[in-house]
Amino acid sequence: MGAEFGNLIRIVGITYYTLSPYEQKALAGVLNPGFKNVLRRARESLFIMGVPAAFVYILVTSANEYHRKLHRKNPADYANDV
User: Fold this and answer.
1) What is the pLDDT of residues 7-33, one digit of tens each?
2) What is the reported pTM?
3) Distance between CA atoms of 3 and 8, rounded to whole angstroms?
4) Residue 29's pLDDT is what?
5) Which stretches does DSSP call E strand in 16-77?
6) Which of 6, 32, 47, 71: CA 20 to 30 A from 55?
7) Which stretches are transmembrane (predicted)?
């Protein structure tokens, strides 16, 4: 059937390409261009994403406050109760 991973059976007609572990660098280029690109993309999309997000946040908080206000009883209505 097969063997363990790394020594699996070979299928005829399929070409396998692999890199030598001595030729690879595990974390090559993760910090240098990757981190800079993340910062650049975040800065570019700040106004595109930030303005609608701020609008939605303000809208939701004001709607929740208004909802709580509607469900609260008016204490003046019960001032003369015994």
Assistant:
1) 777 778 888 888 777 776 777 766 777
2) 0.49
3) 5
4) 67
5) none
6) 71
7) 45-63
